[in-house]
Amino acid sequence: ACDESTQNKVAKKLGYSGSLISQVLRRNYAAKLGGVEEAVRGVYMRQTVECPALGTIPSNECRQWRRKADRFQGTNTLQMTPEQHKIIEMAQGGEPPAEIARRLGVHRQKIYKTLRKARDAGTAIPLFRRGGPVVDTGMKRLSVDRTTYAALEPIAAARGLS
Fold first, then answer.
1. Could you say which DSSP state residue 36 is in?
2. Are strands 48-51 and 55-58 parallel, antiparallel or unpaired?
3. pTM score > 0.85 for this model?
């Protein structure tokens, strides 16, 4: 693969650093090569695995999903701390992170970290911005000048949209 491209491009494609790929090629990499080998098989050899949730996927994608799951074990309530469970429950109820932090007496950064890990693990949690949760209507907000608005207002009223 490195013969066809640069080491940095190969590293980026595999999800590793250029220095790690360099160490592997020079046979100086001290850690186990299982993860690197799996990435190479998935990206360059097109090896696939059967995932119970996602069907047939490249082996490197399977590894990426497993690593995400390892970072946050919160999808199973038995593996979450009661505090993490409460944070996620409050956020799902629409409570802003600053208010969750205040009510639980913890630093706001802990709230954001817990919510990010939960989202990475696939938990549905609304995004927040100053003033409340972000509501995605699927529609773009347009600015309309007064003349255009005045021209469209009677049409909207006739259709019962005003």
1. H
2. antiparallel
3. no
